[in-house]
Amino acid sequence: MVPPHVLLIEDETLDIELIREGLLAVRPDLTLTVTRRGVRGLERAQREHPDLILLDLALPDLNGLNVLTALKASSWTRYIPVLVLTNHAQEDTIWRSYHEYASAVLVKPTKTADFLNLLRTTCAFWFSAAALQGRLPSGCRPA
After folding, report:
1. Domain spans in the chain, listed from the N-terminal domain onward
2. Which pTM was predicted?
3. Most exposed among 8, 30, 89, 129, judged by the fewest C-beta atoms under 10 Å?
């Protein structure tokens, strides 16, 4: 089995380290690519075609919802599962994320242990129970 490739689009250093720790606890063999800007995240997603994208909504250059919309509009990235990360449990933000085809919306807990547990549980699901949509047969990808 090929180790999964995860693209993390997140600008907060502490969150990046917690997410890295949580992901590696579930899959120590995974490849994690980190970018702190939405534009760079879009470029890397197009170029690298990761198996899973973790997308923070509060980015310094673009609104995360705009990044999500662009990812889902592109024939190269629309089938990659995108898990949206947010600090706020605002219902309208959650609904807008799902309206833009987010695979899941994760509200970041304030306690480190809770955040790590959320990451482990969520990623264990995406890495084992769910078929990674990014691993489509070549006939299902754009030519």
Report:
1. 5-129
2. 0.87
3. 129
